[in-house]
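Input (structure):
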C-alpha cells in the first residue's frame, strides 16, 4: 500500500466528501416529501442525539490511531504501529458495543429529555449504526495514519449511497404503518450504510495490511513499546479529542432542547418551533458540504504534521500549517459568499422549502467553523490536545448562553442560533491563534491568508449578482418556474467559480508553486493571459 502526498490525499478525500454531501442534499427533498416538514424536524432531532453518542464513541480514538501510526511509521517502528492499531481497534469495538446498547436501552428517556417524544423510534433504530461506525472508524484511522486516503474516501461513498437508497425505501415502506413509523426509515438506512462501509474497510485491510519496509530496516535496532505504553498513548491522544468533539455535540444537544423551548418562550407555537428547528437543520446540512472539504484537509494534514513533529522537522511543520490555513481560506470564503448570494435560489433548487434567510445571514459561520477546525487539528498535531479541548468547551458555553437570550427575542427567533454560533466560534479562534504562535514561535497571519480570497470572492459575488438577478431579471427568466431556476442557479454557480479562480490568479492569490500541486490537465485549461499574471 503506497503512501500518498498530503495534496493527493486531500484531493481524494475532497472528491469523495463532495459526492457524499451532494447525495445527502439531494436526499432531503425526497425525504421531506415522504415525512413532511415536522417529520424532518423530528428526524433532525433524533440525529443530533445519535451524533452525540457517535462522537463519544468514534471521535477520539480514530484520530489517536492516525496520529500514533503516523508517528511510529515516521521513526520506522512498524511493528508497534500495527500492534497499536490492533489494541485501539479492540477498544473501539468494546466501546461501540457498550454505547449501542445504552442507546437501545435509553432511547425513550432521551427522546423525552430533548422534548421530541416522537423521536423515540428513530433513536432506537440508529443504535446499530453506532457499533458499525466504531468498526469503520478504526480502519479509517489506520489508513489515514499510513497516508492512504483512498479507502476512507471509497467507504464514505459506499456508506452514503446505501444510506440514501435504503433510507428512502424504508421510509416509504413504513409509511403504511403510519407517519410516525416512517420516521424510522432514514435511521435504518444510516445503520445499513455504516454496515456496508465497515464491511468494505475490513476487506480492504485484509488485502493491503502489509508494510513495505525500506532496505536495511531489519538490521535497525528500534526501541519497542510495551502494550501498556501503547494503551497510554492511545488514551493520551484519544481522551482530549473525544472530550473536545463530545462537548461540541453536547452543546448541540443542549441547543436542541434550548432552541425549541426558547422559541416557545418568544411566543412561537410548538409545531412551528419544530418546523423552525427543521429549517436550522437544513441550513446546517448545506454548510456541511464545504465543511466536509475542510474536514478532508484536516484528515490529510494531521498525520503529515504529526510525522514532522515526531522527527523534529520544524520547517515541514510550519510549511504544512501555512499550507492548510491558506487552503482553508481559499475554499471557505468563496463558498460562504456564494451561499449568501444564492441562498434563495439554492434552497428552491434543492426543494428545501423555507429557511433560506438563515443561510443568507448565517454563511459567515462557515468561515469561522473552517478556521477553528484547522486550528484544532494543528493543536492536536503538535501535542496541544488539552488546550484545543479547553478552548472548544469555552466557545460552546458562550454559544449556549448567547442562544438562550437571542432565540427568545421575537424579532430574532431562530436567527439567534446563528448569532450564538458566531460568538461560539470567534472566541476559540482568537485563543487558538495565540497559542499556536506561542508554541511554534512563528508568524501565522490569518488576515494575510484571507485578504486575497476575500477580494476574489467579492468580485465573484458581484458577477453572480449581475448574471443571476440583473440580466436574468431583465429578461424575465427569474420567475419562470423550477426548471428555469435550476438551470440559472447551476449556470450562476459555474460562472461564479470561474470568476473566482480568474480573480484569484490575477490578484496573486495563487502562485506558481501552488500550480505545481495541481493536476497538469487542470493547469493547461488556464488561459494564457491569466498564467502571465501568476508569479
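Output (sequence):
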Amino acid at each position: 500500500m503506497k503512501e500518498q502526498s498530503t495534496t493527493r490525499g486531500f484531493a481524494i478525500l475532497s472528491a469523495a466528501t463532495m459526492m457524499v454531501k451532494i447525495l445527502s442534499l439531494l436526499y432531503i427533498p425526497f425525504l421531506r416529501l415522504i415525512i413532511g416538514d415536522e417529520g424532518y424536524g423530528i428526524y433532525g432531532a433524533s440525529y443530533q442525539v445519535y451524533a452525540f453518542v457517535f462522537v463519544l464513541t468514534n471521535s477520539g480514538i480514530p484520530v489517536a490511531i492516525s496520529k500514533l501510526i503516523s508517528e511510529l511509521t515516521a521513526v520506522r517502528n512498524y511493528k508497534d504501529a500495527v500492534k497499536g492499531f490492533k489494541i485501539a481497534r479492540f477498544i473501539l469495538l468494546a466501546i461501540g458495543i457498550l454505547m449501542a446498547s445504552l442507546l437501545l436501552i435509553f432511547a425513550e428517556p432521551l427522546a423525552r429529555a430533548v422534548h421530541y417524544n416522537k423521536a423515540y423510534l428513530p433513536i432506537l433504530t440508529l443504535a446499530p449504526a453506532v457499533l458499525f461506525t466504531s468498526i469503520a472508524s478504526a480502519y479509517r484511522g489506520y489508513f489515514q495514519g499510513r497516508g492512504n486516503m483512498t479507502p476512507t474516501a471509497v467507504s464514505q461513498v459506499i456508506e452514503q449511497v446505501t444510506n440514501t437508497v435504503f433510507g428512502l425505501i424504508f421510509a416509504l415502506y413504513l409509511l403504511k404503518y403510519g407517519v410516525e413509523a416512517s420516521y424510522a426509515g432514514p435511521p435504518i438506512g444510516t445503520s445499513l450504510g455504516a454496515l456496508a462501509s465497515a464491511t468494505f474497510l475490513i476487506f480492504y485491510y485484509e488485502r493491503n495490511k502489509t508494510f513495505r519496509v525500506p532496505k536495511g530496516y531489519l538490521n535497525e535496532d528500534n526501541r519497542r513499546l510495551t502494550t501498556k505504553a501503547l494503551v497510554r498513548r492511545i488514551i493520551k491522544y484519544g481522551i482530549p479529542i473525544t472530550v473536545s468533539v463530545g462537548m461540541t455535540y453536547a452543546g448541540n444537544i443542549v441547543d436542541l432542547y434550548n432552541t425549541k423551548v426558547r422559541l416557545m418562550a418568544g411566543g412561537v407555537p410548538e409545531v412551528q418551533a419544530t418546523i423552525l428547528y427543521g429549517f436550522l437543520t437544513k441550513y446546517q446540512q448545506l454548510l456541511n458540504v464545504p465543511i466536509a472539504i475542510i474536514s478532508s484537509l484536516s484528515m490529510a494534514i494531521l498525520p503529515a504534521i504529526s510525522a514532522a513533529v515526531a522527527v523534529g522537522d520544524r520547517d515541514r511543520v510550519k510549511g504544512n500549517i501555512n499550507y492548510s490555513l491558506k487552503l482553508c481560506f481559499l475554499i471557505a470564503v468563496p463558498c460562504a459568499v456564494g451561499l449568501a448570494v444564492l441562498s434563495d435560489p439554492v434552497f428552491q433548487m434543492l426543494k428545501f422549502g423555507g429557511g433560506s434567510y438563515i443561510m443568507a445571514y448565517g454563511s459567515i459561520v462557515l468561515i469561522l467553523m473552517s478556521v477553528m477546525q484547522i486550528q484544532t487539528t494543528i493543536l492536536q498535531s503538535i501535542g496541544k490536545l488539552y488546550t484545543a479541548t479547553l478552548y472548544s468547551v469555552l466557545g460552546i458555553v458562550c454559544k449556549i448562553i448567547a442562544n438562550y437570550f437571542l432565540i427568545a427575542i421575537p424579532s430574532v427567533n431562530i436567527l439567534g442560533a446563528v448569532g450564538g454560533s458566531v460568538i461560539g466560534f470567534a472566541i476559540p479562534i482568537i485563543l487558538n491563534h495565540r497559542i499556536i504562535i506561542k508554541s511554534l514561535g512563528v508568524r501565522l497571519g490569518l488576515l494575510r491568508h484571507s485578504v486575497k480570497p476575500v477580494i476574489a470572492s467579492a468580485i465573484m459575488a458581484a458577477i453572480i449578482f449581475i448574471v443571476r438577478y440583473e440580466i436574468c431579471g431583465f429578461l424575465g427568466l427569474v420567475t419562470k418556474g423550477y426548471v428555469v431556476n435550476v438551470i440559472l442557479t447551476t449556470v450562476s454557480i459555474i460562472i461564479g467559480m470561474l470568476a473566482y479562480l480568474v480573480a484569484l490568479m490575477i490578484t496573486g492569490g495563487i502562485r506558481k508553486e501552488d500550480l505545481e500541486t495541481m493536476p497538469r490537465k487542470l493547469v493547461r485549461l488556464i488561459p494564457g493571459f491569466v498564467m502571465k499574471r501568476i508569479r
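Notes: The two ends are 37 Å apart (CA to CA). The CA atoms of residues 399 and 520 lie 44 Å apart.
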